[in-house]
């Protein structure tokens, strides 16, 4: 993908602060960090998101993600981390090359996600489960 910024980063054609690299995946610092060491883990091959990534490639991303978290635990004493991946525009995906955010968190950092819960959906659970049959 010629115009994909993450493909360019994977090919070392665009600047990034590389944290980790394997044959199939790599990790680098997010340019709009929410916290220190906010990191993105991507596959080197271009996939849009969770819908089109093959299982084996997803596994390679997960292996790289685990290595980075381990590295941050060992070197930085990381204890709290949020792993987030957005797939699709309505799910707040902005870069359409699959990636997982590693967001180190600290108590009181002001970055808590606020989810709006819907208790009125609970009575529909039976119907929802049957939709999948
Ligand atoms: P998302 O909203 O999940 O698609 O997140 C895309 C992320 O990519 C954002 O957090 C951006 O800050 C980050 N990003 C975009 N371009 C770059 C870049 N050149 N280097 C590092 N991070 C980037
Ligand atoms: Zn790409």
Main β-sheet description: 5 strands, antiparallel
Strand order of the largest sheet: 1-2-3-5-4
Total count of strands: 5
Question: Rg to the nearest angstrom?
Answer: 17 Å
First and last CA, distance: 37 Å
Q: Could you name the CATH topology? A: HIT family, subunit A
Given the structure, what is the number of helices?
Answer: 3
Specify the overall morphology.
Answer: globular
Structural class given helices, strands, pairing? Answer: alpha+beta
Beta strand %:
15-25%
Bound molecules: adenosine monophosphate, zinc ion
Helix content: 25-40%
CATH class annotation: Alpha Beta
The residue-averaged pLDDT reads 98
**Assembly state:** single chain
CATH architecture: 2-Layer Sandwich
Give an overview in words.
- With 133 residues, the chain is α+β, with helices and mostly antiparallel strands.
- It contains 3 helices and 5 strands.
- The protein has a single domain, classed as HIT family, subunit A, CATH 3.30.428.
- The chain is globular, with a radius of gyration of 17 Å.
- Residues 1, 4, 6-7, 46, 97 line the site of zinc ion.
Short descriptors:
binds adenosine monophosphate, HIT family, subunit A, single chain, alpha+beta, 133 residues, binds zinc ion
Secondary structure topology:
Layout: H1 5-10, E1 18-21, E2 25-29, E3 39-43, H2 55-76, E4 81-84, E5 99-104, H3 125-130
Antiparallel strand pairs: 1-2, 2-3, 3-5, 4-5
Adenosine monophosphate binds next to loops.
In short:
The chain has 133 residues and is an alpha+beta fold.
């Amino acid at each position: 993908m010629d115009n994909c910024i993450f493909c360019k980063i994977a090919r070392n054609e665009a600047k990034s602060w590389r944290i980790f690299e394997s044959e199939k995946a790599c990790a680098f610092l997010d340019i709009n960090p929410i916290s220190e060491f906010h990191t993105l883990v991507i596959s080197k091959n271009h996939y849009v998101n969770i819908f089109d990534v093959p299982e084996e490639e997803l596994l390679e991303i997960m292996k790289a993600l685990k290595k980075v978290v381990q590295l941050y635990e060992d070197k930085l004493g990381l204890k709290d981390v949020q792993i987030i991946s957005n797939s699709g525009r309505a799910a707040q995906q902005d870069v359409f090359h699959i990636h997982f955010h590693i967001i180190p968190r600290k108590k009181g950092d002001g970055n808590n996600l606020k989810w709006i819960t819907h208790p009125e959906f609970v009575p529909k659970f039976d119907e929802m489960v049957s939709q999948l049959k």
